[in-house]
UniProtKB/TrEMBL annotation:
PROSITE patterns: AA_TRANSFER_CLASS_2. This is Histidinol-phosphate aminotransferase. GO terms for biological process: L-histidine biosynthetic process. Signal peptide: none annotated. Its cofactor is pyridoxal 5'-phosphate. The lineage of its organism: Bacteria, Bacillati, Bacillota, Bacilli, Bacillales.
Length: 361
């Protein structure tokens, strides 16, 4: 059990006070329906594999280019920004960790929602950053005014995780606008599934940092590539952290694969449209079964049912080798989170759920 951890007398007090993040299960069997960690059910673009193969054959002897210039150019072109406005890290988790180190301080509380990505409090504790959680409303929407004038800065995912609820671009902009002296980080891990990216605001706001990932909409969770887009000075801050820590955040295979993924825009559009369509269909089916389905703009749904114990549903499905996510946490302990898979996987899930729901007469 990863939660029962030993504590060495040699650990720093920061480490002692940090309860590490526990990621979702990665079962070793292949014959499971895996709807628990928001991966993409479709393989990456076929171009990715070819590019990685080429890089493996030709360049592994050499260190990567420390500036990651080529991939930064590709990302800059994709988002119509300058390459000096792009930072690349080993998954967006690393970009988030570097951002906490670069922009947030002890003594000035940053704000994030109470129901959100559980890595934020982990980083805050590890890097000694004070924080204040802002409770989301009953319907899981964010009370945006409560993020105005934050002492130390703001971070939140848009769409939020694990709720899937998204803010409009105007709402995001108002939070950025109302914190002119502090960095506002928008974690857009799930932005490509139907909401508007704040990247289009980075040239207007020097305090805005947008973080995205190739793990979800580009099917590359295994490659570990994330990136930040923002004002040149914020990117310079992240580079200073990187260069004080590890000059090579990503390797040559990841660089080649990521570049190929961005260059195959048609494939990206095709699979994200499929996922959005499957999400809408699954939401409808679950609603018909009596579930409360939180409105989602992500590749997952947070759902609950008045006559079904969420943890029991999670366990029952796991016995049938269908993995979903259950969080034993206040406010969401009656919900489960279901990643959107292929239509046939969602059908199998719905069949299994139907058998589990008590017959209402
Ligand atoms: N932010 C959010 C909100 C997430 O849910 C995740 C995925 N667990 C990440 C960031 C990290 O993604 P990655 O490190 O794979 O880029």
């Amino acid at each position: 059990n990863p939660r029962v951890s030993s504590m060495s007398k040699f650990f720093s007090s920061r480490l002692k006070q940090t309860e590490p993040y526990v990621p979702g299960e990665q079962p070793n069997e292949t014959k499971v329906i895996k709807l628990n960690t928001n991966e993409n059910p479709y393989p990456p673009s076929p171009e990715v594999q070819k590019a990685i193969q080429r890089a493996a054959n030709e360049t592994l002897r050499l260190y990567p280019t420390p500036t990651l210039q080529e991939l930064r150019q590709t990302i800059a072109k994709t988002y119509k920004v300058h390459q000096d406005q792009v930072f690349i890290g080993n998954g967006s988790d690393e970009v988030l960790a570097f951002s906490f180190m670069a922009f947030f301080e002890p003594g000035e509380a940053i704000r994030f929602p109470d129901i959100t990505y559980s890595f934020y409090p982990v980083y805050a504790k590890l890097f000694n950053v004070d924080y204040k959680v802002v409770p989301v409303r009953e319907d899981f929407s964010l009370p945006i005014e409560e993020f105005y004038h934050a002492e130390g800065g703001v971070i939140f995912p848009n769409p939020n995780a694990p709720t899937g609820r998204a803010l409009s671009l105007l709402e995001v902009e108002s939070i950025v606008h109302q914190n002119p002296e502090k960095v506002v980080i928008i974690d857009e891990a799930y932005i490509d599934f139907g909401s508007d990216t704040a990247v289009q605001l980075v040239n207007q706001y020097e305090n805005l940092l947008v973080i995205q990932t190739l793990s979800k909409s580009r099917s590359l969770a295994g490659l570990r590539v994330g990136y930040a887009i923002g004002d040149k000075q914020l990117i310079e801050g992240l580079n200073r952290i990187k260069n004080s820590f590890n000059s090579y955040t990503i390797d040559r295979l990841a660089i080649a694969g990521a570049k190929a993924a961005f260059e195959d825009g048609d494939y990206f559009e095709e699979i994200r449209a499929k996922i959005i369509e499957t999400r809408e269909q699954t939401a409808k089916s679950l609603d018909n079964l009596g579930f409360e389905v939180v409105e989602s703009k992500a590749n997952f749904l947070l759902v609950s049912h008045s006559q079904v114990d969420a943890e029991e549903l999670y366990n029952q499905l796991k016995e049938q080798k269908i993995y979903i996510r259950y969080f034993k946490k206040p406010r969401i302990q009656h919900y489960v989170r279901i990643t959107i898979g292929k239509p046939e996987e969602m059908e199998r899930l719905l069949e299994a759920i139907k058998k589990h729901i008590p017959k209402v007469t």
